[in-house]
Amino acid sequence: MDVSWIPGSADGIVVACVAIVAAAGGWWAVRSRRSGKSQPPPQGDITAPPSASAPTEVPTRQKPHGPPADIPEDVSSRFERRRARVGGAFGARLASFFGRSDYDDSAWDELEDALLTADVGSTMTERILASVRARVQGGESSPRDAVREALIEAMDPLADRSLSLGVPGDGNLAAVLVVGVNGVGKTTTVGKLARVLVAEGHTVVLGAADTFRAAAADQLETWGTRVGVITVRAAKEGADPASVAFEAARSARAEGTDVVLVDTAGRLQNKAGLMDQLGKVARVVEKVAPVRETLLVLDATTGQNGLVQARVFAAAVALTGVVLTKMDGTAKGGIVLAVQNSLEVPVKFVGLGEGVDDLAPFDVEGFVDGLLDG
């Protein structure tokens, strides 16, 4: 007879306990790019706060094995290589303005229309128009130089557009939250940002806290696999996003990682509950590591509609920067000015194509020259 199931026997108690633990496991999965097996995480002194709604199950983790699938492109040269992609229709309208033989009232109306059509916004358009007009009529600059100088000045070239993440390998974990509505390319941006950080020498853990969209975690894990970084995700769709973010931060701390990069759920601006949850994610991550950056992803082609989203997110969390996607060839290049003027937060990255390394740090002078040459 199998004595392991006799009530009161020592073996029976052990087997029963093992069965209970096995049944409780599996909520969390930390997946890497090389192995489907899991290992228990190193023990640390960080425990989930009650507000985190963290599960009682023990998370599992595993490290990627072998070299990454590919090496990210050097970050310093990315924007320059893609500068020609930002011109589009806005650049064509400016070329028409530059080609005029005289600069009467109709000329200034043409420049005003070009700026407004590019979603610069009425306030910034008035400022730029006044600046250009004064320079040209005063004989200080050619129309082209006057527009270039006014645009660069309006974009605040002295703004700090770097990520405040510290020195790679300094032992100080920094958290980066990426927020934005569905459809703007947020998860893809997180994956591309991971490649930027790896190219700059940082070690990274990805947190798939967009738990309401079935494909989001798989998509993020694919990005992590390609660049050789760990992705922390919930095993089941619909898990608490704050708990996923917390576990990602805790795993990153235990791993001695530089940056935990958290992809949050796409929040619709008319759903107050989801916006409250975003604040919860930020608070929970702060229990483990300081949130150094909260980046808002906006689709440049949405123009002024993107500003509505931006203001709602700014009310929910303290934004530190903006990432504008789909900037290649759009007529909405002026959205850079509108966003910065509205939020007083700098644009830090722009998406200039669909390639894996088409996310580039925003370069004010390079961007303006790209517009003028388009």
Short characterization:
About 45% of the residues lie in helices and about 15% in strands. The protein is of the alpha/beta class.
Please tell me about this protein's structure.
- The chain is of the alpha/beta class and 374 residues long.
- The chain contains 13 helices and nine strands.
- Among the domains are: 80-154, Four Helix Bundle (Hemerythrin (Met), subunit A), CATH 1.20.120; 170-319, P-loop containing nucleotide triphosphate hydrolases (Rossmann fold, 3-Layer(aba) Sandwich).
- The protein has helices spanning 10-24, 78-82, 88-98, 105-117, 122-137, 143-154, 186-199, 214-227, 241-255, 272-286, 304-316, 335-343, 364-373, and strands at 28-31, 174-179, 204-209, 230-234, 259-264, 291-299, 321-325, 347-351, 359-361.
- Strands 1-4-3-5-2-6-7-8-9 form a nine-stranded mixed sheet, sandwiched between helices.
